[in-house]
Amino acid sequence: MSDNLDPKAVEAFLRTHPNFLQDRPGLLAALNLPHGGEGAVSLVERQVSVLRERNIASRQKLAELSDISRENDRLLDATRNTILALLAAENRADLSRLWLHQVTDTFQAEMGALLWLDESSGSAGEAPLAGKLIRHGDSFSGVLRPEEMQTVFGTDATEGSAALVAIRSGGDDIGVLGVGSHDTQRYRAEDGTLFLDYLAEVIGQLPASH
Question: Quick one: 91-209 is in which CATH superfamily?
């Protein structure tokens, strides 16, 4: 931009548009506004207010990142402990029992499921339904209808949400690992399933799953 801008023209513009700086806090924060002179104090105070608001926003963002970091550390520790527990399983029944304990105790989730996609599944409907939920990809995260919650998790017929991932052996889907909640917003479509994917991958490699 040209440096030959007429200061009088700028002054005339600002007088005609007294709210110009007020509506542009980013510009106001970048200006050098000394104290003194008519109106200077109010502008400086406004600039300080903008900087204070930015500082508060930065602190809040930092706090959010710290919370996310702590939660990831907790999940990583829970994943490690769960894998160590699952290594003791001798068969699929052991894997299911240990997972249901770990998901509520170690992961502190509301409910869990480990379903097998063949004749060993405990219920005629639960494995086909779980397989259907993940048929378009490796995982599903989102709202389940009451009958789906009841079928997968054995709960009362109430709406909820769940995260489900495929358990694979070689190139075949052999089961589904899941966590669920009666809260429909607990597991959302945009949420990731990284730790659940990792656990499902480990379970698919364990001798007890075959």
Answer: GAF domain (3.30.450.40)
Closest-CA residue to 74 (of 109, 22, 111, 37): 109
For 29, the token pair is 């924060």
Tell me the pTM.
0.69
Check residue 125 and report its DSSP letter: T
**pLDDT tens by residue, the chain, 210 residues:** 556 778 888 888 888 887 787 777 777 667 665 555 555 556 667 777 878 888 888 999 888 988 889 988 999 999 999 999 999 999 999 999 999 999 999 999 999 999 998 754 444 456 667 666 666 567 899 999 998 899 899 888 789 999 999 999 988 888 899 999 999 999 998 988 999 999 999 999 999 998
Longest dimension (CA), the chain: 86
The pair phi, psi for residue 180, each rounded to 5°, is -145, 165
